[in-house]
Specification:
The complex is a heterotetramer, with two copies of chain A (about 290 residues) and two copies of chain B (about 400 residues). In chain A, about 35% of the residues lie in helices and about 25% in strands. Chain A is α/β, with parallel strands linked by helices.
């Protein structure tokens, strides 16, 4: 078991012929992801890395069973690509692309809701069900199967923490990157619910950051959870009013502060690590290793 | 991108949303001329990207062109929250019967726009009690509809039979249109003035999504970033100046914040936030180091967890920059991930032993910064640092 | 039993204070319709015909259980009114208003689909579950309870035919006016399926007209039906290319002709009356009276 | 409302959709002038609301202003499908590499817009084989999207790498925008011309939803109805002129059609379709009768099933009109429904006994029309009637 994607997920890569798309297709294949098709506006009808390439998603869907799409299309075409996947009936759409206009993001998320589909991202590293399926861009070696679910807003920080877990021999069921933008498809609560329902997941790591109120909302749900949650919140030392890289990572009008988030999580019974490397230590304790 | 009030009002006017008569000026003489054109009492408003200009004395009134000129003379050259006043907006002074508040912004948690309205306008919205604020989310696929606007108008206490009701419904529709068509993150009218039977946007605060500027060629451009932040942005780097003395470069917003947090934890003070993102080559790396060095740090930490970023690329770029430019301060590098071994070999050639763990690298960077501080006698550039004496910057490294 | 509405349906009248709205509220009350609330932009807070009037639908819904809305708002405000009802969660919306722009109709129908609601009309006389509930404008005396379901595109022609049925002592389960416009919420097939599933309905009368292909589509479904269907199609004598009153009643490019519809229906086993008054005669035969 | 080609192209141009250089003229001299401005071979196109003008000789070519003038002289005054040519469009003659077809219209059954495209443009779309037509429904809440347009372009056989591909995607987006923003029922470009690396709308057929004209104040108005039909429309009556001799008035489109059908069944020929709708008062009734009488019918049938319409209102209006204007032909009235008894009493006062059943009333109206035909000797106005001799119109009634 794992959440959202697993060894039976058939994946299409939108934008497979671009530099990023092609490199990460190779990486995903190397990880074991079942990529069955790709799209490319200019390379339809060819084959790349042994994968048939189509002009568009509908044609690919007519020729293959496709469960999920991962999008490597530049920002000005990403909304169109996501809508194309959703309109073709694909129910899991991972949007790796960053710098997408926020109105486009709202449009994609609203349409996904309408058609009952799940959007991961935009501006996400993707999702990895360790040992089964990787959709996105994280480096392969750091993800090993196990019982810790990870959900995060940022990418390299997740690699950092997952790398620590793996270094200590603690594998992951699924690692989900929600995306760093202000409007993204999944919320912490959406993912936490999946982990709570997944028999393989024994504990959850939540990697948050300053800005917004996603962590505060997550805290409400965590009170109902039976599984232990360990958190790290980035940005303790960030000044107010400055956007720290991510569109959403900004403390505005006294909201979205580090301390507010830590308090909410702590009150919900979450153990909050002060530094990234402490997460693996706490998880070890929690799992009784 | 925040827009000046006068620019926001120009956009409003293009969409037929009522704004006061007037225009932007840059000199006292022009101010007098616009006041003469208006031909009655005027208001002269400093154009700065700060919400607190009223309290700071940035708004003045005048009854005639001479008064307007004098007011403009006073205002031009003022500084409001560190921002110099270089532009003014001269407008007719409105007869105000009532001040409302109206804005549309994005609620990231709800993933949709939210309209916020209040019958208590004119003050900072943060100062308006929650019970006087009306919040209404707008479904993206439904958009603004009259029934939504009518309900908000009513909840502001304005009767359907009042002369303002229909005008406000229309104004809300227009404001939503501006919000969507101009890729705005925020459109705010505070105060929205009821004057006689008219409804007029007496102020305009418009913020455009930076990511969408490419498809908004008709909008004017406003540069809010410092020159350094702008240079970084143009290179695809996210750069924020901070007050400390340890230069920071990492790849990814989260890990960069994590690096700052770790430095702080060990008693260090970061001089900057610099997220080099996923794909910075030699030019980007050189520029990043230049930006960091411009902050005159005591030490530098480079923290790379290679995902998209390949460790050998980063190492190669760093080595090349170091060879060409030299490196006036000690640099601590943490390097793991894709092509890690190749990267470390390259660094070794330029005399750097990469760290495995972020916390160890951070500790070292703090140690180096503090150590150097204790050697020489230069004053700390960081505020609130406890170190008393700092050393001259070494040129050795 | 009946379809869509019955004696337990709680109704709101949007635009209750207008001339048409008020008159038909009186008529609907006289028929026995359970009207629990009304809306009026100018008369919110008052009471009309003993019915509490609200400023808007949401407020009414906060104070009453409301199952269905009937809209008497002029064309330029009708889309807004329908969206308001749908957004408030009302699942049956009857739009009596005529002359609504077709793009507005498409928007309303699309939004209804999104929220899983049913739109009857626009430009409809409404719906009557005889003896139980009337929403719309048909004259009260002609609708008596019974076992014949009626579905129609036009109003007075329906009264004509239902009047004939009633005159012969043949009552109706439910009479549905789909509306005369080119884009309306319900199709013949939607309504026929309801009648097929309704135990009380023993036979169905379909009242069509020239233009479009609604009758042809209905024919496809009628082949699967177990209940007998009798039809009358108006416009046998209409010339091509002329719009006969209804926006949809036009024979364009040789499509939507009388003969095409009669052929399709006849092939599906439908008995097609040549004149309106023959419908009642055929129904009598069909029901074995 | 159908728009003339030149009007459609003006709308296209406003939205940035490429159209040929040129403009509308009303005289041969103007045609010569426009041809001179264009400065090369031109095409002169009759502006009539008929699709078949090409076959009817309504389009001519000229190489110079003199030729354009001569062509305009020939065209002005022509009649195409009964429509006089009063306006011309003079345009640059395009070099045509390929002609495509593109339209967006409303699919009532699907309840949404449908885009229709074909690589076989230039001929009537009805003549294009089904297999060469590409139909794509557009979800209202999704609208036109690039991926939809790209797919249609590809299915037209135009490669993504061709110079036209991007231009066509953009054009489809623009056309959909026009379709929605202008409340169109149909926007059609046939042919859509590929000329060099350009894509140009060589024709424009735009039909606006009549019901939405109230909110399209910027569009020009075109009157396609006959004067009589227009007069009826302005009164809220739906009126269509037919070829027979029995005047018809009923309330509701369906029952009016049913009345025509019943008359026809009994051997009658309706002179008109007139749906008086639900709420016609005295003025409307008077006007309706005037419209019907203008068709010079031999008899009139009024068929009212009162729902919204109240029988006494109709009867009162009719009685009043009859008293004021007289009634030159026999009138048969069927009156049932709301306030039926009151209505019948009023009719009785003016000597009319209302019928209970439509078929009986229809039979009588046919009988009266035919009877009168057999009395006198006037030629029938109806085409295809079998009655041989008709009577003078009686003034008694």
């Amino acid at each position: 078991m794992a959440i959202i994607i697993d060894e039976n997920t058939h994946v299409i890569v939108q934008g497979i012929s671009g530099k990023q798309g092609l490199f990460h297709t190779q990486q995903m294949l190397a990880y074991g992801t079942k990529i069955v098709a790709g799209t490319s506006a200019s390379k339809g009808g060819t084959t790349l890395e042994g994968i048939p390439v189509y002009d568009n998603v509908r044609t690919a869907c007519a020729n293959h069973t496709i469960d999920a799409s991962v999008i490597f299309i530049p920002a000005n075409g990403a909304k169109d690509a996501a809508l194309e996947a959703l309109e073709a009936g694909i129910k899991v759409v991972v949007v790796v692309t960053e710098h997408i206009p926020v109105h486009d993001e709202m449009a994609v998320v609203a349409y996904a809701k309408r058609v009952g589909a799940m959007v991961i991202g935009p501006n996400t590293f993707g999702i990895v069900s360790s040992g089964k399926c990787k959709m996105g861009i994280p480096p392969n070696p750091f993800f090993i199967p196990g019982s810790v679910g990870v959900v995060a807003r940022s990418g390299t920080l997740t690699y950092e923490i997952v790398g620590n877990l793996t270094a200590q021999g603690i594998g992951q069921s699924t690692v989900v990157g929600m995306g760093g933008d202000r409007v993204v498809g999944l919320t912490f609560v959406d993912v936490l619910k999946e982990f709570e329902a997944d028999p393989e997941t024994k504990a959850v790591v939540l990697i948050g950051e300053i800005g917004g109120n996603a962590e505060e909302e997550a805290s409400q749900y965590i009170r109902e959870m039976t599984k232990p949650v360990v958190a790290y919140i980035a940005g303790k030392s960030a000044p107010a009013g400055k956007r720290m890289g991510h569109a959403g990572a900004i403390i505005e009008r006294g909201k979205g502060t580090y301390q507010g988030k830590v308090n909410a999580l702590t009150e919900a019974g979450v153990k909050v690590a002060e530094l990234p490397f402490e997460v693996a230590e706490i998880i070890k304790d929690v799992l009784g290793r | 991108m925040k827009m000046f009030e006068y620019m926001g009002k120009e956009v409003f006017a293009q969409f037929g949303l009522p704004v006061p008569k007037g225009r932007m000026v840059k000199s006292p003489d022009e101010a007098a001329q616009v006041a003469a054109e208006i031909g009655g009492p005027v208001v002269i408003k400093s154009q700065v990207l700060s919400g607190k200009r009223g309290k700071a004395g940035g708004i003045k009134f005048a009854d005639n062109p001479e008064g307007a000129k004098a007011a403009a003379e006073e205002l031009l050259g003022m500084t409001i929250q560190g921002l110099p006043v270089e532009i003014l907006l001269v407008e007719e002074k409105l007869l105000i019967d009532k001040e409302l508040y109206l804005s549309i912004t994005i609620d990231g948690a709800a993933k949709k726009p939210v309209l916020i309205a209040s019958a208590h306008g004119g003050m900072e919205i943060e100062e308006v009690a929650e019970e006087y604020m009306i919040k209404k989310h707008i479904e993206v696929e439904l958009g603004m509809q009259d029934f939504i606007a009518r309900d908000v108008v009513r909840r502001m206490g304005i009767s359907f039979n009042s002369p303002h009701s229909q005008a406000l419904v229309k104004l809300m529709n227009t404001l939503y249109k501006i919000f969507t068509e101009k890729d705005a993150e925020l459109v705010e009218i505070n105060p929205l003035v009821l004057s006689g039977d008219k409804v007029i946007a007496a102020d305009a605060k418009v913020t455009i999504d930076d990511e969408a500027l490419y498809r908004q060629p008709d909008l004017p451009r406003v540069e809010e970033r410092t020159a350094t932040e702008k240079a970084a942005h143009d290179l695809g780097l996210a750069f924020v100046e901070l007050d400390g003395d340890i230069g920071v470069m990492a790849n990814g917003a989260g890990i960069t914040m994590g690096t700052l947090d770790t430095l702080t934890y060990y008693g260090g003070k970061p001089a900057n936030f610099l997220d080099a993102g996923g794909g910075t080559g030699e030019e980007g790396t050189a520029k990043a180091l230049e930006l960091i060095l411009a902050r005159k740090p005591k030490s530098i930490i480079i923290n790379i967890f290679g995902g998209i970023t390949r460790c050998d690329d980063v190492a190669r770029a760093f080595a090349s920059v170091k060879k060409k430019m030299g490196m006036p301060v000690p640099v601590v590098i943490r390097l793991v991930g894709t092509n890690q071994e190749a990267g470390r070999a390259i660094l070794k050639e330029v005399g750097i032993e990469a760290y495995d763990f972020m916390q160890d690298a951070a500790k070292k960077a703090v140690e180096l910064a503090n150590q150097k501080s204790e050697v020489g006698g230069q004053r700390s550039e960081g505020r609130g640092r406890k170190a008393e004496a700092r050393g001259q910057r070494s040129e050795r490294f």
